[in-house]
Structures are given as C-alpha cells and as structure tokens.
Amino acid sequence: MVRIGIMALRICVLLALILGILLWADLVPGGIVMVHMLLGLLAMISLWLLAFGIGTAPKGRNLGLAIGAFVLGLLLPIVGLGQLNWLQLGSAHIVIQIIHLLLGLGAIGIGEAIAARYKRANKLA
C-alpha cells in the first residue's frame, strides 16, 4: 500500500507542479486548471493513503506524522480552491500562490518521510 501510495503521490505532485507553473506563467489555456485540480485531488488521496498506512502500521506507527499528513492534505485543496475567490486581493494574490506551491512541495516531503519511515520500520526495499 505504501509503495503504490508514494509512487502515485510522486507522479501526481510532479504533474500538478508542472501544470501549476505553466498556469502561473500563463503558458497554457485556462481549461487545464481542471486537470491540475484532478491531479491535486489524486495527490491528496495518495497522501491520505500514506497517512493511513503510517497511522495504522503494526511497526513504526507514527500518529503525529499521520495527522500532519492528513491536515496538509486537507489544506492543499482549501488553499487551491480558495485562490479562485481570493483572486481579487490584487498584488497579494502571489502570496496565496506561493503558499499553495509550498503546501504542494510539503505534501511530497511528508509523503517521502512517511514512506521512508515505513520502509525502515518494516524492512522493505
């Protein structure tokens, strides 16, 4: 479960990051936003799968890491979807975009930490 979760998270975050940067730079049509959002949703589900795995693991259980991953996964779509309503903030909107980017990078970081901890605890290669 952890191997599938981390691979799905890596792929979804990488593709969402690429699309997000292209959208940010206005290099792709706006219709691509839905693909970016779908990838973000899949990344969130993958992160929650990893959080569930580390939170219920018989060996190497870490509830703090699991809760952190769950909260981060919840914040990503809140901030991402909130951007649509917060767009009227003018020049401060870039701050919201940077926060969303950092949350996405944090998702891959916490996902990698979960996978590494789980593998160490269960001696998976």
From TrEMBL:
Source organism of the structure: Dictyobacter kobayashii
Keyword field: Membrane, Transmembrane, Transmembrane helix
Protein name: Transmembrane protein
Taxonomic lineage of the native organism: Bacteria, Bacillati, Chloroflexota, Ktedonobacteria, Ktedonobacterales
Sequence intervals crossing the membrane: 7-25, 31-51, 63-82, 94-115
